[in-house]
Structure formats: C-alpha cells, structure tokens
Amino acid sequence: xxxxxxxxxxxxxxxxxxxxxxxxxxFHIDELTQANISAGMSTDEARRQATLEFxxxxxxxxxxxxxxxxxxxxxxxxxxxxxxxxxxxxxxxSAAVILTLxxxxxxxxxxxxxxxxxxxxxxxxxxxxxIVKLEQSNPKIKSPQTFVxxxxxxxxxxxxxxxxxxTGYYTEDASETSGALPExxxxxxxxxxxxxVWGIYPAIGRDFSPAExxxxxxxxxxxxxxxxxxxxxxxxxxxxxxxxxxxxxxxxVGVMPASFLFPVREVDVWYVIPANAxxxxxxxxxxxxxxxPGVTINQARANLASIQSQLGKQYPLTxxxxxxxxxxxxxxxxxxxRNSLWILxxxxxxxxxxxxxxxxxxxxxxxxxxxxxxxxxxxxxASRSTLIGQLLTESFVLALAGAAxxxxxxxxxxxxxxxxxxxxxxxxxxxxxxxxxxxxxxxSVIATLLCGLLPAIRSTRTNLSGSLAQSSRTQVSGRxxxxxxxxxxxxxxxxxxxxxxxxxLRSFQALGRISPGFDASRVLSFHVSASWAETADMKxxxxxxxxxxxxxATIPGVESSAIAASLPGIPDHSQTELKVLEGEVDPxxxxxxxxxxxxxxxxxTMRIPLLAGDLCRESADPGNLNILVNRNFADTFxxxxxxxxHHLQVSEKAFPLMGEIRGIVADARENGINREPGPxxxxxxxxxxxxxxxxxxxxxxxxxxxxxxxEKLHEIEPSRxxxxxxxxxxxxxxxxxxxxxxxxxxTFFALTAISLACVGLYGTLNYSVTLRRREVAxxxxxxxxxxxxxxxxxxxxxxxxxxxxxxxxxxxxxxxIVFRHILSNLLxxxxxxxxxxxxxxxxxxxxxxxxxxxxxxxxxxxxQPMRILREE
Amino acid sequence: xxxxxxxxxxxxxxxxxxxxxxxxxxxxxxxxxxxxQISKEVLYxxxxxxxxxxxxxxxxxxxxxxxxxxxxxxEAKFYQLSAKGRKQLASEELNWDRLAQAITxxxxxxx
Lengths: 872, 111
Prior knowledge:
The complex is a heterodimer. Chain A is α+β, with helices and mostly antiparallel strands. Chain A contains 27 helices and 20 strands. The longest helix of chain B has 27 residues, at 83-109. The N and C termini of chain B lie far apart (36 Å). The A-B interface holds A 20, 23-25, 27-28, 30-32, 34, 52-56, 59-60, 63-64, 66-68 and B 1, 27-29, 32, 46-48, 51-52, 55-56, 59, 70, 72, 74-77.
C-alpha cells in the first residue's frame, strides 16, 4: 500500500476511534447526571457533580489512545531512538562499522551502477529493445561481409513483415571547410527512415523530407548538438545555414538532441542517401531495424531468411550465397564487457560478505559487554523478539549510514570507470539514479541481516539469570570458536579475491611482455581527412597518398613512413579465401588468410624483417599487386608447387584482387597482441582506402615531431585536416583498457579485502588477549616466560590464518574450475589454477596475518601479572 | 468523591470486571455501579482506571463489545465475556482463592 494511502487510512481510523471513545464516556457522564437528578439535584448541579466525579476526561481519552496505538510503529520508533542512543554512546565502534560498510556497499553499488547502465538497462532509445542489427554473410567464405548494399536494404525493408522499418548508415571522416582552417568532422551517410528506426526526433528543425530522400533531391543535413554548439556557437538561426564540405554545401534542416548516443559517437553530420545508390555488390551500410511490437528475433530471422532466398533467385550473381544474421543491437554493443562486469560484481559481493563478517565479529565482541544490559531488559519483561528487533534496528541504522556514505563512493565511481576505460560501451550512461539508491538500500538490508541477525540471536539466547548473577570480571572466557571461524572465513575469501587479482595482474604483465613481432615504439599514427568519392580516380588517389608518404619521410627526425588500412596489433577480422592461380586447385585444402593492405614502406617502418625473396613495390598494374606473406602462411600453404613468384587471387566474385608473391616476412601479431599470428597476406598498395592510417617512425620521441608533421601536411594539403594523431603504443595499450579496468579494480577490491581480514584478525586476537589477561597473568606469575606467551598468541592468530588460507585455496581452485571458460577468455598465457600465483598469494596473506597478530601477542606477553591479579 | 472508599488491590480490577461482565452484557457505567453495589459501597473504581482496563481486556480478546440500546434507549457500548475471557476468569479466580487462602493462613499463624 502506498504511504499516503496508508496514512490517510490511519487518520480515518483515528477519527472513528475518537468519536467512539467520546460517546462511550459521554454516556457514562450522562448516566451519572441522571442518577444525581433522581437523587434530587438541580440539572446544572447534577451535571457539575457528575463531571467532577468522572475526573479528567481528556486524560482518560489519552490513556485509551495508548491502549489502541499501533504497536508496530511504536516499537519501531522506540527501537530507533535506542539505536541512535547506542550509536552516540560508542562513536568509535559505530564509525568502524559504518566505514567498513560504506566501503563494502559503496564498491558494490559502484559496480552495480555500471552493470545497471551497461548490461541491464535497454538502449537509450524509445523501446530500445526493438532495435536490432542485421548483417549479411556468405557462409561459403569465412570472411564476414557485414556491410550491405543500399539496394538490398530497400528490398529487405519493402518485403519484410516483421519490422516497423529498416535503415542503414555508413560513417566516414570529412573536412568542414566553412571556417578559416578545415575542421575534421565525421559524417554519416544514412538510408531513408533513419530517425524512424531510432525513434527520435531532431531537437531543432525536422527530419529529412521525402523529397530530400529522392535521387536528385535537395541536399540536406542534420547536424550534431556538438557541432551546433562549437562550430556554429549555438546559432538560433541555424536552420538558415549550410554545412560546407569542399564543393558540397547542403542546407541544415535540423539539430540532433545531445542525448542521441549514436553507435558511432563522434558523428557530426548526417545526410540521407537516395535508396537506389550503388549496385547490389556495394558494401556500404551497417543495417539496423526496428522490430514490430511483439515480434521475436527468431521470427524476424525466419522472415528475412525467406526473403533473402527469394532475392537469391532473382539476383543469383550477387544474392544467392548470402545469409542474414540478426541480433539485438544491445547484445552486440555489450557482449565484450559482460564477463568482466560480472566478475567484478562477484568480487565486490565477496568484499561485502567480508565486510559483513568483519562486523559480525565486532558485534559479537561487544556482545559480552551488552549481555548485562540485555539480561536486565529480559528481567523487565521484554520478549526475545522485542530484543532481537531492537538489536537489528541498531545494525540497520548503522548499515543505512554506511549505505549513504557508500552512495557517495558509487557516485564518484562513474568517473573512475570513465578514467580507466573510456572506450567501455555505454560508459556515458553510468550515473547515480533511483535504481542505484534502491540497490544500496537493498544492500544495507542484506547487510543488516548478515551482520546483525547472528549476534542478535546469540546475545539474546543466554539464560538471563546466569548473566545477571555473573560478574563479568570473574568470568572465564570460552575459546570463542565462532569468532575465530569468522576470521577464518574472511581470510579465505580474501585469499580468493587476491588470487583472482593476482591472476589478472600476471596476465596483464604477460601482455606487456609480449614481443609482437613489430616495433611500436617511436611510431606515430594519424589520419588525413578524405572522402570515398576520391575512389572514382584511383590513380589520383594513389598519387596523392604516395606524395604524402614521401613528404613525411623528408621531415627531420622521421626515419620512415607508410600507410596501412588497419593498425598493426589491432584486430581487423578480414579473413579471406584465396586461390593459387598456378597449378591444380586442391578443393580439400582451402587457403584462408588474413588480408592486410599496406604501402611498401610498412615493413621498414614497423621493423618486420624480410625472411626470403624481395620486399614489395607499388605495382604499376592495379590488377596485379605485389604480395608478401608471413612465415606462418609460408609454412602452412607454400610448398614446392606453390612458392615465391606464384599468384594469389581472392576467391570472391564481388571483390576481384590478384597479386604475385614477392617474398616472405617474419610473423607479427597483426591481429591482436594477445593472439598468436595466423597466416597473413600483405597486399602492397598505397591506396587501399582513401583514408588509411599513416604510420611514421621517428628517431626522436614521437610526440616531438607532431608539430612538424602538421605543418608539413598543411603545406602540401591545405584543404585537408590531420586528426587522431597519437603514438601507436598508446593505441595498442588502449585495446587493453578493459583488461586494465578489471585488473585495477579487482586489485583494489582484493587489497581492501585483505586489509579488512587483517583488521578482523587483529581485533579478534586483541579482544581475546583482553579477555584472557587474568589467565595470562596467572601463568606469568607461575613462571611462564614472556616468549612462551608471545608464541602462544602468535600461533593462535597464525593458525586461524593458515586454516583460512587452506580454505581460500580450495575455494579459489573450485571457482577456477567452475568458471573455467569465462576465466580462460579473460586470462592471457596463465592458467586459472596457476600454482605460482596461488602460493604467492598465500605467502603474502600469511605474512600480513603474522604481522597483524604480532601486536596483540606482544601486548599479551607484556602483561604485568601482579597488577592484573591485584585488580580482583 | 468519597475519601473513605478502599482502592482496589493492583491487578484485581481486571478480574472483577471479568466477573461482573460474566453476569451478562453490560456497559461501563453499569460495571462501576455494580462493583459499588455488590461490594456494599466498599470498592470504588475510578473511571480513569475502568475504561483503560476495559479497552485493554477487549484488545486482548477477553471481552467483546457491541453498541446497543441502554434501559433509557440511549446508544451505549455493551461488553460481553468471550470464551477466552471465561477461561481467563476461571484461572484468575483459582489464583485468587489460593492467594487469599495463603494470606489468611499467614495472618492466622502469625497471631
């Protein structure tokens, strides 16, 4: 029941009660008055006497209210008051509990905020779960050929029965030239129905008109909020302006909302491409669609499969072999980070359990001090459930304070996430909201039950007469096995976390130590803006890029320069099937290799050594390129019958490419630093794409030549912009941003866990020393040496830590086996059950545990027997 | 209010109320009247004790209450003994007998 309803009902009940009480009491007074009149009094006198005899009516009414008052709220309120009193009375204890919980709940809520934003919430578009991505592929060729021709998108959109609409987009970099200097922007060429599929509207202006989507229609663009603010200075008359990109100068018809998080984040302008552009073999569009309400992915898949087979009959040359893949856009966006996030969530949950265990131990230690108070309250007639309720309220108030503080931690966490992994998908959506607050609240309730229930039950279980009679001074403490069990649990969980962190750390280190087969140090990479329109004149494009490469090489401090269609060490996924033109084709042994497109200077720039044959040159005939293959390719596919001088051709009909093998180079981890190199074919051409990555090796620090490179390029290409200029090594490091994120965070959590466990060990041992000081004093008085006492307590702490470590080791191995598949994806060149890591972790934990046992043990050994014994 | 009336022994009021109500449905005024009459003006229950006690007993389920017509046709709240209240009354009477006997015993022996 909502609270306001509840309150108004309570008010009504109270009004009814008041009127009933009043009429009952009035009846009594009236009867008394009547009796007095019968006895001969005047009416006025009779009433006066009756009222007098009846006594304070208001007071009686109050007492009756007390009888009827809600018992639950009443107790909750008094419990709350007593909890606050308890907290005020022991500030140090409360602060320790609150801080521990703030850490536990804060870390938990922080990771949950990321999970909520990235994994749980739908994409930030209206009915975002209806949005899917469509890919085409040719099952006969391994290469994923995901981009779809505009004509085919139109066919799919026209023929399907499961989508509200389908559209496509394609992004490239361009230069906006209306300012003094060309500004690099990213443009998106989109199919009709683009905004309809996303379900959004421009913040200013309108969607493309049907005329603008027609061939030969008036050119129009939508611009991003960023471009409107930065480039046009938030011009209110923006709809009268034009964007200028060289000779192309379309009118601005709208400004997109700032909240529109397009899958390609940096897009500045969108313009619509007529539906009939290109031919059926064009590979342009990333295709997205919006499902009709209630349609499942599988229905859509079946629908489009039948459409495509129909198209295959109609256009056998281009469409016969295509299959269509459909997946939720959200799944594709977040698939990569899911495991990392759940692993982090698992670790912070362990951390919260450790924090709670720690607090249970603290509460239990206080238990003996409060036993007297509890016994008194028992004897005054409080029921056990009342007392448990009171003790739990205390824990809850502490947990709530911890959660509030933890929320502050969680609020700061989104910044940490952004700093550690800026490329994390949807990272900009992480922020504090109601679901995080509710989650923290839930955490504090769970923490209350975890921390409070056991101590509350235990401390109210004792028979009270015994407690009342016993003076705590003469009480001989038991061995308190429960407290030691709790310490052991903390150590075990901390070992598990630390082992996880250790594995990630060692895996991360191993990544850093890999020799990738190329040398990324002192190499800069950057882009020079270009347009695909330039591919109409391939010769001119090649000349333009060659001229740029040559100019770069003349800059002082630059050793060599080259271009590549994709950066070395960063996955490109361009597996293609090839065939050898000479000799017989063996259909049993398909040649499938990764294709990389590089200029001839690439191998010198990246320092990939030539093993056999010659280095490649730019071929004069674009239909017969020079090819270098890597060692793996040579070992796998070359033999006497196929060798240097033979020709390779891409098998795809739509993609004619042929070249001659000129030589063999050493293996390099082109497709990811953490992946063994597979067979690679390098196609030597300066103009694989209009906008390749430029790579420059310098003899001095790469950042020192950035300025001169910009100057030189402005000199030779004044209308083009240079952008994304960064050391190659930094970009390689960024590909491990997610590894770095989980490694840093898990290490932090593990260190927190081990600190908590040590504090727990220290506290429990310290407490045990205090309780047993009489026993120790007696033994010392009877001739035991200080060394023996020291050893005894040290061994007690160490023993519990060792048992915890053993349990932790078993737990770690169990986790490693259960989550084998997830872990082996996250770890590089290290097994989840790596013995070195585990034994190092255990050695560290034992050392720290011994250190934290040392102080209490030392204190015990310094007990002054006579003083303690005289206290009695 | 007459000063010489004896106050009720702590805890016995509940028992007396139960006993009076056991005779038949009755309102608060009637109960205070009955106690006074039966005890021959010795016991006098203040309204300030009577009504809280009545409501407490009702809440515990020993009494049930209904609004009805009084002798002079006015709306009054009538109390009635429940089955639970009857059991309670029986046990309290038993207790009282034992207590009274014990006290009498002590008083006699000490003479």
